[in-house]
Every structure is written in structure tokens, then in C-alpha cells.
From TrEMBL:
Lineage of origin: Eukaryota, Metazoa, Chordata, Craniata, Vertebrata
Family annotation (InterPro entries): Kinase-like_dom_sf, Prot_kinase_dom, Protein_kinase_ATP_BS, Rho-assoc_Ser/Thr_Kinase
Name recorded for this polypeptide: Protein kinase domain-containing protein
Domain Protein kinase as annotated: residue spans: 47-104
Species assigned in the record: Phrynocephalus forsythii
Example of a GO MF term: protein serine/threonine kinase activity
């Protein structure tokens, strides 16, 4: 929730000044944690491999579980040498862009 929305909600709820300060502080802490998480670079060591879901021309898709949260994801592991050899780097970039935009 952005700052303006937070202020509007607090006004509608009729919070006292002390409560508003506490709410703002909590909001700032959560925002800091979120931004820190967003900057964190993930690696294979952050996940536990569960099983292979599929194999393709350039690599494999694995079902993985994030160690710290327990969330389950599909991870595509590509072999860069094979992509370069078959001149498919452009296609991988487009696929990455699509996956970044998708929210499912």
C-alpha cells in the first residue's frame, strides 16, 4: 500500500496520532523488507529439487521447493552452450520477457 493510501485509510479509521505513528513505522519496515527481498539474487542453492517435470532441446524443467518459504515452483534450467550453438538466444530472451510479464 502506498503512503497516500495508508494516510487516507488511517484518516477514515479515525486513528489517534500514536496509532498513526505505529502504523507508519510498520508500513516502512514492511516496505524495507520487501525491497530487500526484491534485490536478493536467487540461486540453485536456495531451492530443493523435487522432480523433473519435462525435458526439451535446451534443458530441463524441474519442480522445486524454496527452502526458506516452502513455496513450490517450476524451474527451467537451460544449457547456455546448446542455445548458443543453435543460435536460439533471441528466443530465450523473448520467453523470459513473457514470463516476467505473466503473473500466474
Amino acid at each position: 500500500m502506498e503512503q497516500k493510501k495508508l494516510e487516507k485509510v488511517m484518516e477514515e479509521e479515525g486513528l489517534k496520532d500514536e496509532e498513526k505513528i505505529m502504523r507508519r513505522s510498520g508500513h516502512a519496515r514492511k516496505e524495507t523488507e520487501f525491497l530487500c527481498l526484491k534485490r536478493t539474487r536467487l540461486g540453485l542453492e536456495d531451492f530443493e529439487s523435487l522432480k523433473v517435470v519435462g525435458r526439451g532441446a535446451f534443458g530441463e524443467v524441474w519442480l522445486v521447493q524454496k527452502k526458506d518459504t516452502g513455496h513450490v515452483y517450476a524451474m527451467k534450467i537451460l544449457l547456455k552452450a546448446d542455445m548458443l550453438e543453435k543460435e536460439q538466444v533471441g528466443h530465450i530472451g523473448v520467453e523470459c520477457d513473457i514470463l516476467v510479464e505473466a503473473d500466474s
